[in-house]
Amino acid sequence: MATKDEVRIVLISSVSAILVGLMSSLITGMFLTKSNNIIAEKDVKIINAQNTQKNLEMVQSKAEVYIDSVMDLIIYLQSGQDFDVAVAKQLSMQVQKNGFKLMVYVGPELAGKSIDLSVKLQNSFDFTDGRPLSDKMKELQQSAAEWYKAYFTEMTKYNYQSMPNKLEADAIALLLSYLSKS
Is the pLDDT of residue 63 over 90? Predict the structure, then answer.
């Protein structure tokens, strides 16, 4: 027959084994949960980057159509052909239509610059306006430059959205290039 000490030793050993097993299961479970969270966060970042890339491509496509219509109007105005107000208005309406299509996909700054550029284009051949043509052309050039700047600001935002750590990486790269020059 087993003595009390032997029973105690067996009981303590059994309880210790159970506790160690439970603790190792708990620790393993915590590591599995943490790794699953990391994998899920990575998947979310990948999906966000893919969605951002799709949006970027859509904005680029709409911006290209818009700028093509702007160029069609500018080429017509500079072509030296007999000027037809109806043709110019039709081209101007196409510019505005494409500008509104672009507005759906971009931020408010680029949307506003698109409308401003469209209006300046239409005003450039408005002969009821008494202002000199040179003033209208300066406004048009300024508006085009502002649109261009707003477009590239918008594209930069998409780049940083698709790569959340890009700003940090760019700062480190800039710092390293500065330090390597010294």
Answer: yes
Nearest CA among 101, 121, 118 for reference residue 59:
101
Fold of 49-160: Four Helix Bundle (Hemerythrin (Met), subunit A) (1.20.120)
Burial class of 50 by CB neighbour count within 10 A (0 to 12, 13 to 18, 19+): exposed
Sign of the Cα pseudo-torsion (172, 47, 157, 146, in order): positive
Query: Do 155 and 42 meet the contact criterion of CB atoms below 8 Å apart?
Result: no
CB 72 within 8 A of CB 118: no
Statement: residue 165 has pLDDT above 80:
no
Between 86-90, 93-97, 158-162, 178-182, the lowest mean confidence (pLDDT) is in 178-182
Cβ distance 111 to 147 under 8 Å? no
The alpha carbon of 6 is separated from its chain's Cα centroid by a whole number of angstroms, namely 71
The predicted model gives 57-70 an average pLDDT of: 93
Exposure b/e, 74-112, CB count within 10 A at least 16 = b: bebbeeeeeeeeeebeebbebbbebbeebbebbeebbbe
